[in-house]
Input
Amino acid sequence: MKTVASGLSNRELEVGTFFQRDRSWHPPALTPAYKTSVLRSPQKALLSLDNTLSEITGPVFGHNILGELDDDLIHNFAKPGKSAIGQRIIVYGRLLDERGKGVAGALLEVWQANAGGRYRHKRESYIAALDPNFGGCGRTITGEDGSYAFRTIKPGPYPWPNGPNDWRPAHIHFSVFGHGFAQRLITQMYFEGDPLIWKCPIVRGIPDRAAVERLIAVLDMQATIPMDASAYRFDIVLRGRRSSLFENRLEGN
Amino acid sequence: MTHSLDRLKESPSQTAGPYVHIGLTPNFAGIGGVYENDLGADLVSDKTRGERIDIKLRVIDGGGTPLKDALIEIWQADAAGLYNSPFEMRGAADPNFTGWGRRAVDAESGECVFGTIKPGRVPFNDGRLMAPHITLWIVARGINIGLHTRLYFGDEQSANAEDPVLACIEHRHRVATLIAPRNGNTYTLDIRLQGERETVFFDI
Ligand SMILES: [Fe+2]
Output
């Protein structure tokens, strides 16, 4: 694996620590309506401390890890000449930090159910049919300005064992690397107008409605490809680095 | 009107869910042919410098049951204590060691093993050396936001005793939750999500 992404090589690197995470903005560990969290949520106080080099640094991936179809979920698992079933969409946006700067050269990995709401996974038990031409994973690396795009089909909503009749809104899971391990984030993207969003116990774990809205992608008619694919815009924000207005250098350097 | 700071808020976290393997370890999940390898599967090649070790991990829930669907990532310095990152300003890390690994735990045993090398010591923010350690990040169904913690090495008693991060742990008996005992070349650590021996997790 090459470790320096081309998008990073010519930039001036900022090496400050990251802004403290606002834990009241994220879902708390324990959200009892999402039952699995009951036994999987730490109960003791977290140990708070400023980032060290171990969190300021993190893996960075080069474009050489990417295959040609990695950002095309319609085709990357399909048999030659075939494509996945479903509403064809482009998902695009920018990866930014809290200071509004684009995060370049960052790996984004996505996974999702097929158009019927069925995952290709051995633990999956929903009766909806598998699509033989849909695998459900994709990845890309952000450009110089933090922009990214991939092509997929709109996933279906699905029922899940939690309450007697809970349904997940249609969603795409995102795994995001920034430049430091402290920025590591997994989240989910929802679709504008889906009434299931506000009923979902996983979504409702997020305390602030404004925070939930940040996870809802918006239909963008200007970015559609006529007679081919509609488009959803989804921007993602990672923790920002403190700028070094006053250098706080490591001793011995 | 007061000034505006014009800051954006971080995107809120959502659980990785039960199907995280599809996205992050598709070959492990049986989805072959999309990616050549699962990222982070191999940390070490025969050119990597340093002492070969295995790290064996489990994640245990509040009922004492190992999670069967967790995913763990590790991040560590090379044998000389340098990170393979563009943000490492102290020198060039071993080009044959990325320092990053990813594993899904075994669906039966809940265990996962990282074959890696023992990291060197890295300075804390005031220049004191931290003890050798590996940063761990854990996600799974039921975990709403990824959990950060560290693994320290059981045979590094004197380095551990002067580690500035371990020194921040107020309840001293909890330090042991981060220290993996050594047996041969294998260090073993159970990450406990709850209970008497709950692991120290970091807000970092
Ligand atoms: Fe899902």
Q: What stands out?
A: Chain B touches chain A through 83 residues (CB under 8 Å). The radius of gyration of chain B is 18 Å. The pocket of fe (ii) ion is lined by residues A 168, 171, 173; B 17, 19 (CB under 6 Å). The longest strand of chain B covers residues 52-60.
